[in-house]
Amino acid sequence: MLYRKMPKNGDELSILGFGAMRLPTKEDGSIDEKTATDMVRYSIDNGVNYVDTAWPYHMGESEPFLARALAHGYREKVKLATKQPQWIVKKPEDMDKFLNAQLEKLNTDHIDYYLIHSLVSSSWENIRDLGVLEFLDRAKADGRIINAGFSYHGTPEDFAPIVDAYNWDFCQIQYNFLDTNVQAGKAGLEYAASKGLGVIIMEPLRGGNLADPVPQEVMDIWNAAEKKRSPVEWALRWVWNHPEVTVVLSGMSAPAHVEENLRIADEGLPESLSEKELQLVERVAEKYGKMMPINCTGCRYCMPCPEDVDIPACFDTYNNLHMFGDEDRLKMMYAAKLGGILRGAGTNFASQCVQCGQCLDACPQNIPIPAMLEKVAEEFEGPDLQERMAFAKKLFSDDSC
Ligand code: SF4
Ligand code: SF4
After folding, report:
1. CA of 198 to the centre of ligand 2 (A)
2. Which neighbouring-strand residues pair with 147?
3. I need a labelling partner for 311 at 20 to 30 A (CA). Which of 96, 350, 374, 390 fits?
4. Ligand 1 centroid, distance to 338 Cα (angstroms)
């Protein structure tokens, strides 16, 4: 295992972090406790020392599971990260209530790395106005949390103001070789690192999409490499190639994933891929780009829409569905994210488009935006949308956890 230093405190963190959001499950959907515990402990025995969870993972069961998995001395061997469910914080006192509940659920007296979960511009403004920065100061001072950070799913332009708003120790962003210009993106990664923040990477395999199944035309490019690597190895090595990255989280859901990731992590040095290898990854990214049914680059020149439709997010979700499948998860995320449940704001659905045409001239890709939004709405907003929103509300609610 290789380790990288957290810039502000010098913690030597394993470059592979264990993400406890896609643990192995049984037929009824509950966590397969025996397999999952073995995986967590095996990872730690082999050098992993960063474990990440959050309030809603596995319907609220990930945190108590980790308390049990990290018993018998394993808790002391890791830095434990969990996240404030900001979307259900309604008043300042709720922040203490959730943190104290999390300490209890995790059976620990402190959280090493505490993040405000899943920020976008609107949820950031909301939680900031409720006093989250004062709360973080207090929780750090009384020792309930050691390091304060945030995870981010907003637009590229809204990222830097959040970085600049507080003396954060770290942040967590989505980053992989397809997502260099969405959310925080490459610019955000470099900005956060330049400000001294450690950067934890989530979704290095795009929710597993870059791992399996890989389209034959993409495999043909990978197979042309002089040094043969699996798609997972290419994707992880590409992220670790960035010196600004501290830890890469992997949501491992089978013992074989742990074995493979541990092996790959032994070689994840910064700037260790050659120019030729980086060009190969670029060619794969271009191939995936050509396979997208809507040629949206996520540039956001079309925004803001006067009706609040989140055009690039609608197209991104539609493209993912058509490139990778994973229908149930994507439809749930469409309902949760664009339905305002995770953003703490109103809805941004494709069907809200009134065809005013304002966005058309702004799009450098000449996408017929209103027509394509109709396709998105057809695919994602059938009669079961309300049911999905109700389920998402329950999934991300206070009560379910
Ligand atoms: S055409 Fe639709 S998506 Fe475009 S700006 Fe108007 S309402 Fe928004
Ligand atoms: S301007 Fe066009 S390419 Fe850019 S985000 Fe909007 S739809 Fe996508």
Report:
1. 31
2. 113
3. 390
4. 15
Residue reference for tokens 């659920």? 105
What pLDDT is attached to residue 390? 84
How high is the pLDDT of residue 343?
Answer: 66
pLDDT at 224: 94
User: Does ligand 2 lie within 6 Å of residue 144's CB atom?
Assistant: no
Q: What is the pLDDT of residue 298?
A: 74
Domain that includes residue 34, residue range: 3-281
Q: Which atom of ligand 2 is nearest to the CA of 301?
A: 1
Radius of gyration of the chain (CA): 21
Ligand 1 contacts (CB < 6 A) are 305-307, 309, 311, 353-359, 369-370, 373
All residues at 6 or more sequence positions from 303 whose CB lies less than 8 Å from its CB, including other chains: 155, 310, 311, 312, 359
For residue 160, the one-letter residue type is: A
How high is the pLDDT of residue 122? 85
45 CA distance to ligand 1 centroid (A)? Answer: 53
- Per the listing, tokens 């999409």 go with 209
Distance 207 CA to ligand 2 centre (A): 23
- Protein residue closest via CA to atom 2 of ligand 2: 363
Query: What is the pLDDT at residue 384?
Result: 86
pLDDT at residue 72, as a whole number: 96
Does 302 reside within a domain?
no
Question: Which amino acid makes up residue 52?
Answer: D
What is the number of structural domains in the chain? 2
pLDDT confidence of residue 209: 76
Kindly give the distance from the C-alpha atom of residue 374 to the centroid of ligand 2, in angstroms, as a whole number.
16
- Weakly modelled stretches of the chain, pLDDT under 50: 400-401
Residues 6+ apart with CB under 8 A from 247: 4, 13, 14, 15, 16, 17, 50, 198, 200, 201
Q: Residues 40, 157: one domain?
A: yes
Cα–Cα nearest to 381, from 350, 354, 353, 341: 350
pTM reported for the whole predicted model: 0.83
- Does the beta carbon of 312 lie inside 6 Å of ligand 2? yes
Q: Give residue 400's pLDDT.
A: 43
Tell whether 275 and 315 lie within a shared domain. no
